Amino acid sequence: MDETMKAKVTNDAAAYIVALAKNHGRNAEWAEEAVRKSVSLTAEQALAMNVVDFVEPDLPTLLTAWTASSRAEGSGPAHRRGAGEEVEMAGSPLFSTPSRTRISPTSS
Question: Cα(22)–Cα(50) distance, rounded to whole angstroms?
């Protein structure tokens, strides 16, 4: 990919993440920086910078915190599972099978 196309892709991704962050009441400035400078945060930093709402040790605790929060109310038309409901994990974790993942059809 040439430099012009890289800049276009970066600008598009930055615009998208800023709009997404603003729509969800998140830190749009940090979101743009994450795209443009490839920066990341620890969980605690993300919480302090309004990138996430909760940092919890496990899924049941996260669901309890989310169910009790104001963001759980009216957050969309889809039913979301809350605390006490059965949760079934589908698929494999993102990083569980890197050797079988192909990024590009031209990669070997």
Answer: 11
Q: Residue 75 is encoded by which pair of tokens? A: 């957050």
String of DSSP letters for 13-75: HHHHHHHHHHHTT--HHHHHHHHHH-----HHHHHHTTS-S---SSHHHHHHHHHHSGGGTTS
CA angle centred on 34, ends 30 and 36, rounded to 5°: 110
User: How would you class 67 by CB atoms within 10 Å of its CB: exposed for 0-12, middle for 13-18, buried for 19 or more?
Assistant: middle
| Tens of pLDDT, residues 64-94 | 888 777 655 554 444 455 556 666 666 666 5
Give the tens place of pLDDT for each residue, 42-58.
999 999 999 988 899 98
Say how many CA atoms lie within 13 Å of 30 toward its Cβ: 13
Determine contact, residues 87/59, Cβ cutoff 8 Å: yes
